[in-house]
């Protein structure tokens, strides 16, 4: 199938060298399968060209990844998953990995407020360090 050869060529172009015969045959076989399943050849070439940079070798797995929409798919049919309100969705808080009432990031953020200002006063600390060094210098 000519389309499959184009897909292999797209991969090799992105790779910057020719594939070993066995790898090329495997990729070509996957391309034939995907073309047979109705994937457009241009679209498959694009997917194949992405693979070397990603370190992927399996065209079927890469092409079937939900991230890739086939031409004509608007994405509206792929409703965004409902965010679980019981999880914390604040930016940088693990993208919903932590429960809202037990989020380590939220705890970390609320800690200074809850415990009041830091007990160590930076000015005092500097003064102590200076005094300590002065004492050492006086001794030496
Ligand atoms: Zn949080």
Automatic annotation (TrEMBL):
Positions of region (Disordered): 65-103
Protein name according to UniProt: DUF222 domain-containing protein
UniProt organism field: Streptomyces roseolus
Lineage: Bacteria, Bacillati, Actinomycetota, Actinomycetes, Kitasatosporales
């Amino acid at each position: 199938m000519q389309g499959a050869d184009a897909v292999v060529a797209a991969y090799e172009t992105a790779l910057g060298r020719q594939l070993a015969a066995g790898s090329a045959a495997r990729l070509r076989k996957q391309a034939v399968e995907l073309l047979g399943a109705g994937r457009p050849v241009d679209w498959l070439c694009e997917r194949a060209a992405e693979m070397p940079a990603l370190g992927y070798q399996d065209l079927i797995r890469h092409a079937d990844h939900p991230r890739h929409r086939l031409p004509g798919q608007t994405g509206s049919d792929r409703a965004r998953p409902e965010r679980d309100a019981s999880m914390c969705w604040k930016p940088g808080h693990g993208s919903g990995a932590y429960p809202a009432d037990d989020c380590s990031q939220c705890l970390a953020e609320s800690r200074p407020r809850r415990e009041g200002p830091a007990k160590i006063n930076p000015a005092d600390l500097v003064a102590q360090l200076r005094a300590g060094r002065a004492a050492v210098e006086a001794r030496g």
